[in-house]
Amino acid sequence: MPIQSADVHNNADIRVERAKAIYNTDKMTKIRKSHENPAIKQIYEEYFGKPNSSKAHHILHTTYTKRGK
Question: Are residues 26 and 44 in the same domain?
């Protein structure tokens, strides 16, 4: 989130305004669900095979590695 001045913080709840903007953008988007996106469907048909396939899991998922300071 961008840093806002104290004046802005005193007059508006930035988190609430940001959430409203995100929800409004989502409402206006034609394709709202990734599994309905034609491009995603094509990638699965041509490359991954099916959702949750071994290939999709290997490429799309990651693991957490704790790092020292």
Answer: no
State how far the Cα of 22 lies from the Cα of 8, in Å rounded to an integer: 19
Residues 61 and 40 in one domain: yes
Q: How far apart are CA 31 and CA 6, in angstroms?
A: 37
Contact 42, 36 (CB under 8 A): no
Report the run of H or E that residue 24 belongs to, with start and end.
helix 14-28
pLDDT in tens, 28-68: 999 988 889 999 999 999 999 988 899 999 999 999 999 99
Which of the four pLDDT bands, split at 50, 70 and 90, describes residue 2? low
Contact (CB, 8 A) for 50 and 44: yes
Same-domain check for residues 16 and 36: no
Find out whether 63 and 57 touch, Cβ atoms under 8 Å.
Answer: no
